[in-house]
Amino acid sequence: MALTDEAIVKIKGMITSGELGPGDRLPKEADLAARLGLSRNSLREAVKALTLVNVLDVRHGDGTYVTSLDSAHLLDALSFMVDLHQDDSVLQFFEVRRLLEPGVAALAATRISKEQLADLRLLTSDLTASAPVDELVANDLRFHRGIAEASGNSVVCSLLDGISGATQRARIWRGVTQAGAVERTLAEHTAILDAIEIGDADAARAWMTAHIAGVENWLRKAR
């Protein structure tokens, strides 16, 4: 593993130095191994590892390329990691959401466009208290994604996309078992959006904190 790690570090160095950029093709395996002072086997294992985290793209019959390196593509690996976690870690993901999303809502209050605001208003009006739980959860996911997009920070969007999958089952569970969950969610979404619409970052932060903390606290008691 030490030799493979060395190979990974050297390839990473070629990218961070600018020698290799997004979309560039790596030199042929034999040439690159000789140039880096590595065995071809170590280089091959390093390429496999970097492919798994979307840094490299192996195109059979063509060569190995550096990916676009955009945040959404690189953070796909986070979604894979989240999928491997069991339900006993879901509270940790809610804690991460509680740390991130209030700040995201505050940013959205200063950056949201009229079109984004209108789309989010449609989401809050599309749902009624009698809606089935699966519609509530789908609407909730789109609402939080829309606020992340309104923050203008693509890295945050990708992070929250990766984390949301881990909390989706808990959201469904709450919707099925807790009386008034749909009404409460709709009321909190409306309050968050009202604060964002008037540009009140502090209120948007506070309402988002309360919104996520409410689900988190319910889950702690329900477990």
From TrEMBL:
InterPro entries in alphabetical order: GntR_C, TF_FadR/GntR_C, Tscrpt_reg_HTH_GntR, WH-like_DNA-bd_sf, WH_DNA-bd_sf
Domain HTH gntR-type as annotated: residue spans: 1-69
Cross-referenced SUPFAM superfamilies: GntR ligand-binding domain-like, Winged helix' DNA-binding domain
Domain of life: Bacteria
Keyword vocabulary terms for this entry: DNA-binding, Transcription, Transcription regulation
Protein name: FadR/GntR family transcriptional regulator
Protein source organism: Kribbella sancticallisti
